[in-house]
Automatic annotation (TrEMBL):
<keyword id="KW-0963">Cytoplasm</keyword>
<feature type="binding site">
    <location>
        <position position="213"/>
    </location>
    <ligand>
        <name>L-glutamine</name>
    </ligand>
</feature>
<dbReference type="InterPro" id="IPR020058">
    <property type="entry name" value="Glu/Gln-tRNA-synth_Ib_cat-dom"/>
</dbReference>
<dbReference type="Pfam" id="PF00749">
    <property type="entry name" value="tRNA-synt_1c"/>
</dbReference>
<keyword id="KW-0030">Aminoacyl-tRNA synthetase</keyword>
<feature type="domain" description="Glutamyl/glutaminyl-tRNA synthetase class Ib catalytic">
    <location>
        <begin position="29"/>
        <end position="338"/>
    </location>
</feature>
<dbReference type="InterPro" id="IPR049437">
    <property type="entry name" value="tRNA-synt_1c_C2"/>
</dbReference>
<dbReference type="Pfam" id="PF03950">
    <property type="entry name" value="tRNA-synt_1c_C"/>
</dbReference>
<feature type="short sequence motif" description="'KMSKS' region">
    <location>
        <begin position="269"/>
        <end position="273"/>
    </location>
</feature>
<feature type="domain" description="Glutamyl/glutaminyl-tRNA synthetase class Ib anti-codon binding">
    <location>
        <begin position="341"/>
        <end position="440"/>
    </location>
</feature>
<comment type="similarity">
    <text>Belongs to the class-I aminoacyl-tRNA synthetase family.</text>
</comment>
<dbReference type="InterPro" id="IPR020056">
    <property type="entry name" value="Rbsml_bL25/Gln-tRNA_synth_N"/>
</dbReference>
<dbReference type="GO" id="GO:0016874">
    <property type="term" value="F:ligase activity"/>
</dbReference>
<dbReference type="Pfam" id="PF20974">
    <property type="entry name" value="tRNA-synt_1c_C2"/>
</dbReference>
<feature type="domain" description="tRNA synthetases class I (E and Q) anti-codon binding">
    <location>
        <begin position="456"/>
        <end position="532"/>
    </location>
</feature>
<feature type="short sequence motif" description="'HIGH' region">
    <location>
        <begin position="35"/>
        <end position="45"/>
    </location>
</feature>
<feature type="binding site">
    <location>
        <position position="232"/>
    </location>
    <ligand>
        <name>ATP</name>
    </ligand>
</feature>
């Protein structure tokens, strides 16, 4: 049965867009997703992607992908490629070609010259440290730079020489002349251009001065005809500066900025600086490590685009900062995979079982559904004298409520027969290395006569099963707020030492031999898993645990 169509909740941005279209203020909306290419995208960016691209799609508009690439020292082509892949993987496509703020560097430079000519910008020789001192703080107004009253001619000359590369990094900066006593710190003569002798991934060595993010962003929006410039609340205090530039320059359009609350997810960090630190110091295996909060990390772990989009829709769009529980994201992926992931059996800690009364050399081909509710066809499991079960499914002295194999006890093998544990064979150290069991040949597809068997366990064939590696991923941090540390501590102190457990020598049913990277499955009784996108290949199967069957953290 198909799920009924659900009308998305009318959050405030939907209402604004709808009102603007109905009033005729705009005939078509144009949004943009403007990442800085200085790292991989994280789950917080997923919310922004879904919002900007989703609103454009919903109201028949378009969304641009624009890289705000104003700091070449921290930007790399690798990040650009990864961001493009993430956007497309989430199910969205930008309008036209990929755009770059660097496409507009010539125009931005010309506008900076116009501000100088209008007496609204000046070249300042204060060092970064001196500029911070002159800026004041939230309770004290700033002081005018001693270079604030340079003549227009001197400013034009110095700015041209800055562009020509005459001065070293940090020697001078171009600043807007606004108000050093403004209550909003962003209006205290903000920097428009810095000297950076750095090679740029798009413009090469054409420039040795680069515009600030604040000077670039609004004008780029205006050039592209953005109607709704949607960003997170941290940019709310930047809006007066955004509007000051638009009001004081001959821009072709006047976009409007709107802010929403960013996505804060517990048990994660989403600071690019912290994510980069995790990578650089080797705490994780790259930006796409399945424990990372990056989109590529969630993808490699087995999350689906649909689950992430559903999560972003569920948490809604507000102007109130809040922390979302990781359990909601895990619910979304469980719900998606429960409906769409085929079932399979994999024994993570194999224990050999010999069924002593099963005919030697005989093999039965048992057929099991690939999904209990969806029509995904069948899979074949060979059943013979030797099989594997999980080591935890046999106990000599089990706890109360244990419904698996015990000495002399019976259990049903999933989709197969009822077996009884007759004898355990141990090694010299007393470890159980094999179980000798007997089976009831009259129990295939039916209950045994005169007795009730409560437990059902999974199994795989002996000879026909395939060996694999299974990586049990868990939350990267033990604290819901990783930044909560003892005085002088670091978020790194809260890394979960059990966030990755690697199991080798696992045994999977034969149908999994053909698993390709990113194929997802429910391993019965174990959780949801996917074939690793980097290390899994025919003959070397590697499966990552996406999520457990139930929320064990909430217990």
């Amino acid at each position: 049965m198909n799920k009924p169509e659900i009308t998305p909740p009318a959050h405030f941005l939907r209402q604004i867009v709808q009102a603007d279209l109905q009033s005729g203020k705009h005939t078509r909306i144009v949004t943009r997703f403007p990442p800085e290419p200085n790292g991989y995208l994280h789950i917080g960016h997923a919310k922004s992607i879904c919002l900007n691209f989703g609103l454009a799609r919903e109201f028949g508009g378009v969304c641009h992908l624009r890289f705000d690439d104003t700091n070449p020292a921290k930007e790399e082509q690798e990040y650009i490629d990864a961001i493009k892949q993430d956007v497309q993987w989430l199910g969205f496509q930008w309008d036209g070609e990929v755009r770059y703020a660097s496409d507009y560097f010539d125009q931005l430079y010309a506008w900076a010259v116009e501000l100088i000519k209008a007496g609204k910008a000046y070249v300042c020789d204060l060092s970064p440290e001196e500029a911070r001192e002159y800026r004041g703080n939230l309770t004290q107004p700033g002081r005018n730079s001693p270079f604030r009253d340079r003549s227009v001619e001197e400013n034009l000359d110095l700015f041209e020489r800055m562009r020509a590369g005459e001065f070293p990094d940090g020697a001078r900066a171009l600043r807007a002349k606004i108000d050093m006593a403004a209550p909003n710190m962003n209006l205290r003569d903000p920097i428009l251009y810095r000297i950076r002798h750095a090679h740029h991934h798009q413009t090469g060595d054409k420039w040795c001065i680069y515009p600030s993010y604040d000077f670039t962003h609004g004008q780029s929006d205006a050039i592209e005809g953005i109607t709704h410039s949607i960003c997170t609340l941290e940019f709310e205090d930047h809006r007066p500066l955004y509007e000051w530039f638009l009001d004081n320059l001959p821009v072709p359009a006047k976009p409007r900025q709107y802010e929403f609350a960013r996505l804060n997810l517990n048990y994660t960090v989403t600071s690019k600086r912290k994510l980069k630190l995790l990578v650089d110091e080797g705490h994780v295996d790259g930006w796409d490590d399945p424990r990372m909060s990056t989109i590529s990390g969630f993808r490699r772990r087995g999350y689906t685009p649909a689950a992430i989009r559903e999560f972003c829709e569920r948490i809604g769009v507000t102007r109130s900062d809040a922390v979302v529980d990781m359990g909601m994201l895990e619910f979304c992926i469980r719900d998606d995979l429960d409906n769409n992931a085929p079932r399979a059996m994999c024994v993570l800690r194999p224990l050999k079982v010999t069924i002593t009364n099963y005919p030697e050399g005989q093999v039965e081909q048992l057929s099991l559904p690939r999904h209990p509710k969806q029509d995904m066809g069948e899979r074949i499991l060979p059943f013979s004298r030797e099989i594997y079960i999980d080591r935890d499914d046999y106990m000599v002295d089990p706890p109360k409520g244990y419904k698996r194999l015990v000495p002399g006890g019976e259990v049903r093998l999933r989709g197969s027969y009822v077996i009884r544990a007759d004898e355990a064979i141990t090694d010299a150290e007393g470890n159980i290395v094999e179980l000798l069991c007997s089976y009831d040949p009259d129990t295939l597809g039916k209950n045994p006569e005169g007795r009730k068997v409560k437990g059902v366990i999974h199994w795989v064939p002996g000879a026909e099963s395939v060996e694999c590696e299974v990586r049990l991923y868990d939350r990267l941090f033990t604290e819901s707020n990783p930044d909560k540390t003892e005085e002088g501590g670091s978020f790194l102190d809260n890394i979960n030492p059990d966030s990755l457990v690697v199991l080798t020598g696992c045994r999977a049913e034969p149908s999994l031999a053909s698993a390709t990277p990113e194929d997802r499955f429910q391993f019965e009784r174990e959780g949801y898993f996917c074939a690793d996108s980097k290390d899994s290949r025919p003959g070397n199967l590697v499966f990552n645990r996406t999520v457990t069957l139930r929320d064990s953290w909430g217990q």
